[in-house]
Amino acid sequence: MPELPEVEALRDFLTEQLAGREIVRVLPVAISVLKTYDPPLTALEGHQVAAVHRHGKFLDVETADGPHLVTHLARAGWLHWKDSLPSGLPRPGKGPLALRVALETGAGFDLTEAGTQKRLAVYVVADPREVPGVARLGPDPLADGFDEARFAALLQGERRQLKGALRDQSLIAGVGNAYSDEILHVARMSPFKLAASLTDEETARLYAALRGTLTEAVERSRGVAAGRLKSEKKSGLRVHGRTGEPCPVCGDTVREVSFSDSSLQYCPTCQTGGKPLADRRLSRLLK
Prior knowledge:
Elements: H1 4-18, E1 23-28, E2 49-55, E3 58-63, E4 68-72, E5 77-82, E6 97-103, E7 108-113, E8 121-125, H2 132-135, H3 148-155, H4 162-167, H5 177-187, H6 200-221, H7 229-236, E9 255-258, E10 263-266, H8 268-271
Antiparallel strand pairs: 1-6, 2-3, 3-4, 4-8, 5-7, 6-7, 9-10
């Protein structure tokens, strides 16, 4: 799933490609991706793009004197830029293409989604806060005002495990499964540790890991073409998706805990005092 760094890179890329250009056609291919119907998709046509924003993992294309096109790429969605879009209308079918946006220059982008679980979401709204997922977002961890004191206040009284707390978009916007693993590895903390149990020193360490990991990932992704962002993300990950490989810090074997629809990766030596975590459903929480 694209997370804050990749969506921020897409925002940068689209700002360069779209700002000041006119949208002439928006073509829905998979009607299921449309989560709003008023205003219609056609309300975007004939308007210039004023700016591109990011809200957590949401992309927001703002038009001048027109509506916003807000997109959440979900787990398997992606954006493909084309300097020259194919001629003719795309045909609805079983392929990955979900939506096409065409500019007056002949360029544009496709939104696609792989797999059978269709969760890609597109909204056309007058204000992005009309999108439920945007309205409930917590603070952006890279915002100037997101300091250590604010982070500590968010975790105070938080009885969930760190892995779940970091992924909660209403607590902190933009962190998902991959970067929560990376942040916890940098902070040298168990994913099962309770957020409310952190000492002041541990809170400071986790805050530094959060800001540092995301900032480094954004910088790695900056200037990377949209089509290469996925591989760039994978190449920069130290533990997530690297089960069985050596930890780049200590050399121990990266382990995994599997859940019904996801998994987490961690280093026992760096994060859990050398103790492998058992299946979450059967183990006691590690402090």
